[in-house]
Amino acid sequence: MPLFPNYHRAPVTFIQANNATWVDEKNQSYSDLSSGIGVYNVGACHPQVESALVEQAHHLWHVPNLYQNPLQETVAQKLGGDTYTTYFANSGAEANEAAIKLARLATGKSTIISFTNSFHGRTYAAMAATGQDSIHAGMPMLTGFEYAKFNDINSVKSLLNDDVAAIMLELIQGEGGVIPAEQAFIDDLIALAHQQHILVIIDEVQTGMGRTGKKFAFEHFGFEPDIFTSAKGLANGIPVGAMLAKNELAPALAYGTHGSTFGGNPLAMAAASATLTVLDGVLNDIDDKIKHFWLKLDEFRQLPTVKEVRGLGMMAGITLNIPVNDVVSELLKAHIIVLSAGNNTLRLLPPLTISTEQLTDSLEKIKHYLLKK
Ligand SMILES: Cc1ncc(COP(=O)(O)O)c(C=O)c1O
């Protein structure tokens, strides 16, 4: 066995993908409502991203962070404007590691309050921030992490002390089952953090890059986080992560405190820059598709196998009362790619660029499948 057994891989090999259609080695087509776990937000192999990548590949693939990298500056400006300063990493977990380090360096405090049922990645600090016992199982954990109950401000208050550097959360818990934060909880949390001089870190790895209908989910909630992270859809399939912090925090990530060989690699930056340009256009035009998505999803609420439907924008969770993993496998056999998430939830993250016809057709097929169960 050449590979570790740490993944369950379905018995299908994909060889090609175009927007929301993937093709396997037998030349069979599949409809993708997963975006490759929230990555292909502007559709697989988007031609504009592909051109940028190919063009960059002709010139320069890698340059260490010992030299100027104007492409990083371009992407940083597109991502954070004049308000945020950016550090580039290679993944969501790495972006979160940088956020945790920065919060500790900037405040001189160590405790990070995160939430039960959260997911922040598999590297050590990101894993420690993740509030799920199953993710920690069998491994000693880092100290300095406390877990509050999601959507419960009193639970946060009960964990406060002089050593709290930051509160870290997803605005919609993705892996945890597509559980949205409540507006009132966020309002209270931001006020509390402000009052207590505690930083707020928003993990936008799954909710960002247009997934919820705005570039970042915090735009729905009416605040600007001190620190936020992005990855997954950032370069539409080329590995990259980013940690952004309000400009005034920037000096804390001083020379020598952090770094990465590949972070902000020219290929990733070319893809990210093109993705961000494409995304602006896609988001200008997304409202009708989102409305349609939720009209169709409303129909799922009536099904006997469905307990609850939740989400925001193009991010939906359908909690089932039949085993979700069987549903995911069966739908794959029917050539529809969907995901599971915590709490027996079917998770749908279609590319924002999926055609309304393909979206409708795929949702109808899922609905009929669930109806027959
Ligand atoms: C909210 C969130 N944060 C962090 C991560 C980790 O990202 P990566 O797998 O790129 O390390 C994920 C991955 O699913 C995620 O959903």
UniProtKB/TrEMBL annotation:
Pathway: Amino-acid biosynthesis. Gene3D superfamilies: Aspartate Aminotransferase, domain 1 (3.90.1150.10), Type I PLP-dependent aspartate aminotransferase-like (Major domain) (3.40.640.10). Its cofactor is pyridoxal 5'-phosphate. GO terms for biological process: L-arginine biosynthetic process. It comes from the Bacteria. Keywords: Amino-acid biosynthesis, Aminotransferase, Pyridoxal phosphate, Transferase. One of its GO terms (molecular function) is transaminase activity. Belongs to the class-III pyridoxal-phosphate-dependent aminotransferase family. This is Acetylornithine aminotransferase. The lineage of its organism: Bacteria, Bacillati, Bacillota, Bacilli, Lactobacillales.
